[in-house]
Design a protein that fits this description.
heterodimer; A: 402 residues; alpha/beta; 5-stranded parallel β-sheet; two-stranded antiparallel ribbon; globular; B: 409 residues; 7-stranded mixed β-sheet; 5-stranded mixed β-sheet; 14 strands; 36% helix; 16% strand
Amino acid sequence: MTISTGRTPQAARGTESGSGAVDALLPSDVPVQLIDADGVAHSDSRYPLPAADLLLDAYARLVAGRRINDQANALVRQGRLAVYPSSHGQEACQVAAAAVLDTQDWLFPTYRDSVAVMSRGVDPLQVLTLLRGDWHSGYDPYEHRVAPQATPLATQLLHAVGVAHAAKLKGEDTVVLALCGDGATSEGDFHEALNFAAVFHVPVVFLIQNNEYAISVPLKNQSVAPSLAHKAVGYGMPGERVDGNDVAALLSVLGTAVLRAREGGGPALVEAHTYRMQAHTNADDATRYRSADEVQDWVPRDPLIRARNYLRGLGLLDDASEDELAAGAEALAAAMRDGLNADVEPNPLDLFEHVHTVRTTQLREQAELLRGELQRDEAERDALNRRSSGPAGHSGSSGASR
Amino acid sequence: MAATPTDTGQQVREAEEAGTASGPETLTFAKALNAALADEMAADPTVVVFGEDVGPLGGVFRITDGLTARFGTDRCFDTPLAESGIMGMAVGMAMNGLRPVVEMQFDAFAYPAFEQVVSHVAKMSNRTRGKVKLPLVIRIPYAGGIGGVEHHCDSSEAYYAHTPGLTVVAPATVADAYTLLRDAIRLNDPVVFLEPKKLYWSKETVDLAALRRAADEALRTGGRVAGGIGTAAVARTGTDATLVAYGPSVSTALAAAAAAEAEGRSLEVIDLRSIVPYDDATVDASVRRTGRAVVIAEAPGFASVASEIAARISERCFHSLAAPVLRVTGFDIPYPAPKLEHWFLPGVDRILDAVDELQWDEPAAGEQEPSRSAGFDSAGGGPAAFSSPAGAGTRPAGGTGTGFTEGPR
């Protein structure tokens, strides 16, 4: 179906010719695709091809996103990041999710969506605080209106509904885009979030990045629905499926859904068909559950290749401008490396800082306990330093004699 | 809020009359909660109330009675029947500037929301280094004693108290129902507000107008209500032993103290009011004075809040204690069917039995050893030193030269 603006679920439900109303909510028979794997554009009467300058900007972000993924993987191998769930192969979804939102909108990402968060403007080093292990979230969610990256699956979808609901009650012009994966659609919170969003008719766009795997479990073991987008009809909201490696189609379909939500049309569900090219994280061994041939099949469908071919075909991209984009991405990677190679000592006393607004007596006592341990450690270090600071020291000999 | 209240005017007049009324009045626990919700909603347009059946019905216990009529469906509304959905949506609303007050209908029906509570409600402030505060209240009709069928009578406080980041409140009086709920809504942290079901229809004479003025004044000055969350109350003064209780167990403890008085024992009763923050100071001061303590709670005792309290008292007041701290709690079994709950719940007799166990025959630690001879006090004949174990723990170490011999072991 076309995600047209302004139609309310009530209108859909009220249509006596019930099948028509249901049909209006159903997704396309095949995922929407505007640029094919060879970089050839195809027109779709429902979804306009985004303007060339938007696609050029998106391509620059794809290149940056790919470089960020590769750099983060390298930083894990070097021990600078504890873990990194890569979105390699899913960069088009990452870039489009951020690009379709305005400043006053909100993005609700998962742990795999670091590139989307950075694409929204959050400092990469602050994003990687979580995966570096300094703290659970490193950025101020209000600064760029990006929620903390959620780890418990689908739980963040309800928060997205709440932010949108509050915005609606307060009369704010805010749309919320909430991300999840195919595995998350099995969680109860996915169901509750979509149902609440539809019942309260709030401005949320749910984007499922169906990358075929929930760690090792393939989609066929996760759901036997005609598609994940088909689930939308059960909640009375429109569903749509889109080629998740086609950034043009993503921008158009998501942009339409966001506009519809902004104009009071209510929530929508979009399923992007993509593929997780790498293992779940560096701790995972994907060869245990999928073949190299299967992965290889997806290589030609890479989101960067088709956008590049399309833009080069239009003459908007040449070797010089590509070099420029590559250099920009390289600078970003270098900044990530430099930032993460700098040692940051988290302050252990911060552990008690934000648990409650007013610290309880018990936490005060526990903080004092830790402070005492830290002071003892420091005193011992100082003593060691004095001893090792050489025999010339006035107390050096007595220290050494002990 | 963009919405206009659909007030008929009648409720406003009633509220105004209540606000200007003065002097004591008879009020139920339920009505006090209802008044607290209405007053906070009137004072702060960002307060929203939602949950299952809380709209036109006014909640299954009528705690939200009249709120939709007075404040409109944007401010008090029914949700689809899904507790995780209610909780998760409240998180998002709190992130975006509202103060949600959600109702969980029954204690055991709150469990579907548990992941949201533990993984997000409790952790959001810490996760974001205080950038995202969640000023929300989770109201839970709580505990037993009302003949409820299965899944309607759980004492689930330990789950919440064990989760860092949550404030856990359990009022025991009509006045506290009002004041603590208003304070909970004002707090910038998430609060689990446990409402003892058996108290809903209990009545007390309280000066609601005075309580309202105090809460309004605190709101105006941007401060907290005096005697708000975090301070325990001495519900009854006494000298011989301390009963520590909260929520539904306070009234039982008070009944036990009244009965004990008839038997010549003076029991002090501490009403914790909030489990988190826990008021060590008030409890410790009482126990150090009385030298004996019994902790009372309905929840199963194993790994419970009562256990934590008993441990804290033992650690902190050890040298003032004349006897081990005892617990009177529910048995470690699923909450019983209505015809059997009487045997499960801590009652006056079980509390008094525990008080009797507090080693009254022995001198309290620190007290002067009386000059009586243990041997003469012991029942039965025979040489005293051979038969009496009494006082072994309080006698000076060594024993030689004191006039008492240690006796054979």
